[in-house]
Structures are given as C-alpha cells and as structure tokens.
C-alpha cells in the first residue's frame, strides 16, 4: 500500500512540476471545480487567474478523454 501512495505522490509531483501538464489537465476540469481549485495554492490561483488559461478553458470541449488511468491496489504489473 505504501508503494501505491509513493507512486501517486510521485505522479502528482510530476504534474505539479510541469506547467504544461498542469494547465492541460486543469483546462479539462469543470468550471465549478476550477473555482474551488483557486484555494489549493498561489500557483494554482495564478494559473486560474491568467486570461490565456481562461480562454483555453472556455474553448476546450468538455468531453471524456480516451485516456483513463487505472490505479489498482497493486501495481506489480508496472514494476516488471
């Protein structure tokens, strides 16, 4: 279980450390959640307040992506 938490933490840190990944992830989030996310950190507040981000969020189609992440309780298949 500890390995799962470490992997999830590592993935979250990777996204947080990459401005492009973070913005591309957040522009696909519904507006009501974006408003809530402004409280997460100063960086997220800054990103959410950026006019370019607002424009991108308004123009991206809110659809389900063909990419789904399945974080199963055991990730042994990844370690091979």
Termini, distance in Å? 18 Å
Strand content: under 5%
- Dominant shape: globular
**Helix count from the secondary structure assignment:** 5
Describe this entry's structure for a reader:
By secondary structure, the protein is mostly helical. It has one domain. 60% of the residues lie in helices and 0% in strands. The chain contains 5 helices and no strands. The protein has helices spanning 2-17, 19-26, 31-37, 42-49, 51-59. The longest helix is centred in the N-terminal third of the chain and has 16 residues, at 2-17. It is globular, with a radius of gyration of 15 Å. The two termini are 18 Å apart.
Task: Using brief descriptors, characterize the structure shown.
single chain; 80 residues; mainly alpha; globular
Compact summary:
With 80 residues, the protein is an all-alpha fold. It is built from 5 helices and no strands.
Secondary-structure map:
Elements: H1 2-17, H2 19-26, H3 31-37, H4 42-49, H5 51-59
Protein name: F-box domain-containing protein
Domain F-box: 21-47
